[in-house]
């Protein structure tokens, strides 16, 4: 084969290290907690392992390594007995703390009969698991904020969905900064865009107007969507809360959207989306539930557009950016903090960085002000 | 994974130091157009910024973050208008090409 391009004639090479085999430190959402409270153990493949999720008799949700330390049986195929998960192979009983509590056919449990247990948290109807390759518990200041609407009657229940995506999860995180893709992939029109990276949070603030070329015109008497205001923050490496208001010509609709994922392995992840919508005078009772489902479908359509891109694209560590692109490199610098030991987190990974694009003031207005400044200075420098 | 430098910082304008006209906090700033601004803070700047110290968390699940320092925004705007922070021209004409290296 003849190389058409090479370093020699200035062809830019795409560079990419293999996706990390280490998994991010942080809280990961495993989905609606109600999914796991049906009295059965559940298999979850995450962090390169097979896990068992089970609700113990005391109502708590527990996450353990699925493989029994006795002879390797799969606990997620076992049975919940009281507060313990019983292995289907020899009935060994494991507690949510990872300790073997009893062996029905033995007088005593051997020493060091302990398996890997993950710290869990239930909040707002969701189950979270703490992953840390160093094995430390979550620091007190690394939390997932409470989503008030999730437990309130004047908001709908979660409309939740899960999809497996066959690529490394960095692709989904990159979207935080990818302003231009919202126009080309999702048919929205950002007029204001801001990223703030600070500590373990990464925020995207976006105000957009609807694209008249991409939406059907409202039928007579129906409200017309005019745009949206979105304040979306990743709290850690994988859980994004989007405080999202849809603007219509006659009303605003308030919603909270979740965009979360957990890695299955280095090259696949489970992508979650969830939405709740606030009931209002304009959106009473059933109408809010219908709207939540409609928006849920709309969001899934957005994810499908992303997935189409992801499953065909290549991993790229050296994206060639133009000035109109968002801060991809700075985001990845932030994201790196979750893939190194706590002791190796450098200031540049966590220090505040802001990127703002505000198109509300026309360029012409800026130019006029510069010209006025220059004219004033010229006048001032004239001898009296 | 190696942390790489933004190609725009290598080929284009760097982040330039700037002091806030109100409290003297030092940050690094870059503008890629009249509409776009990047601000890099460090730990010292975060402690020093008066607006940040006086700020209280806003509402909603993401209200914990400090949205922006208005005094610093004004300082940056003025620095851009005065030419202290360069602003590339915003004309969307033919894109200037980088001279080929021999």
- Spatial shape of chain B: globular
With strands numbered from the N-terminus, the spatial order across the biggest sheet of chain B is 1-2-3
Helical stretch tally of chain A: 6
Instruction: Please name the fourth-level CATH homologous superfamily of the largest domain in chain A.
Output: Naphthalene 1,2-dioxygenase Alpha Subunit, Chain A, domain 1
Spatially, the strands of the biggest sheet of chain A line up as 11-17-16-15-14-13-12-18
Question: What percent of the residues of chain B sit in helical stretches (DSSP H or I)?
Answer: 25-40%
Largest protein interface?
A: A-B, 53 and 38 residues
- Gyration radius of chain B, in Å: 17 Å
- End-to-end Cα distance of chain B, whole Å, is 32 Å
Low-confidence stretches of chain B: 92-102
CATH fold label of the largest domain in chain A: Naphthalene 1,2-dioxygenase Alpha Subunit, Chain A, domain 1
Largest sheet of chain A: 8 strands, antiparallel
Mean pLDDT of chain B: 86
CATH architecture of the largest domain in chain A: Alpha-Beta Complex
- First CA to last CA of chain A: what distance? 76 Å
Q: What is the count of distinct domains of chain A?
A: 2
